[in-house]
Request: fold
Amino acid sequence: MVDLPSSLEKVQYEMFGLFHASDIICRAVTPPTPCNYSNYGSGYELREIESFYDGYNQLDDMTLYVPSESLELYKNHTAWQAFGNILPIEE
Reply:
């Protein structure tokens, strides 16, 4: 299980493929924005993107737990809705 803090605002778009976890807890009330570091000319730039990398279709098999007041935000978010199950965090 991976437990992401409430202060998280951005997340690397390949992040969940690195964990190979079946459960993710994201405590952020506002869904963090997926981002990618891209090399542009003289350096790297953090760019916001619309989806997570899911080359092995593993997000379908993962359960995402989010704050109950944010459940609909995550379910309707272009990137986060890729998770197979999105459920409220039960404290």
Summary: The helical segments are 15-19, 71-76. The chain has a mean pLDDT of 88.
